[in-house]
Amino acid sequence: MPEPRVYYGHGGVRRQQEAFTDAWESFRIEPERFEQAGDQLVVVVRFWGRGKASGAEVEARLAHVWTLRDGKAIRFEIYASPERALDEVKHGATERERRDSNPRPPA
Fold first, then answer.
1. Structure confidence by residue, pLDDT tens digits, 8-53
2. List of residues 6+ apart from 10 with CB closer than 8 A
3. In this structure, are residues 33 and 79 in contact, taking their beta carbons and an 8 Å threshold?
4. Class of domain 9-100
5. Contact of 49 with 28, CB cutoff 8 Å
């Protein structure tokens, strides 16, 4: 998988998607569970893929955490542990809150 990092804005979303798809020869993502807590939606997913460079096959269970405002996605985070994502969102201690307490890097 591509290195974890933070992307900002529409251009950042495009760069993240390009980096992700460029890393895989093929992949599939299927949602297993949806949980909403306030303005956040946790989608537990099953991921299967074959690395483009290595040819290695990967299967993982992950969580996508979406933050919504006025019906639009304003933030997207990926957690390696669905249980941790669900717990943090339900209890309000998200990665977003910890990161937001740190200054934003220059654009």
1. 888 988 998 898 899 999 999 999 999 999 999 999 999 999 999 9
2. none
3. no
4. alpha beta
5. yes
**pLDDT of amino acid 83:** 95
Q: Which residues contact 60 (CB under 8 A, 6 or more apart)?
A: 46, 47, 80
CB atoms within 10 A of CB 4: 8
Domain ranges of the chain: 9-100
C-alpha separations of 86 from 54, 60, 67, 105 in Å:
32, 16, 13, 28
CB 41 within 8 A of CB 31: no
